[in-house]
Amino acid sequence: MKRLKKAILLPLRYTAHRWNRLRTYYWADNKLHELRSVYVMPTFYYRWLYQTSMRLAETRRFKRLADRAIHTIPYHVRFHVA
User: What is the pLDDT along the chain (82 residues), one digit of tens a residue?
Assistant: First the structure.
């Protein structure tokens, strides 16, 4: 349930920020603060994403995409896999 809640609140906060809806942004940010230790996806997905991104980074053409994907992975998984 917490993963689903966080998966809904993250895009809501981003959209509220882009549309300059500060009350909604701060409300979503406050709710997300309670869920800061919850990871939306399971660990094996993040490991797969890291390994795939590293293979893509070898290709100069996909380096920006790979870099962006790697930075969406939580720190504990990124440093454990690397």
Answer: 888 888 888 899 999 999 999 999 999 989 888 888 777 788 888 889 888 998 988 888 888 888 888 888 888 778 877 6
Instruction: Choose among 24, 77, 76, 26: nearest CA to 49.
Output: 77
How far is the C-alpha of 15 from the C-alpha of 21, rounded, in Å? 8
**CA–CA separation, 37 and 33 (whole Å):** 9
Q: Is 20 left (phi over 0), alpha (psi -120 to 50) or beta?
A: left
- Locus of tokens 């795939």: 52
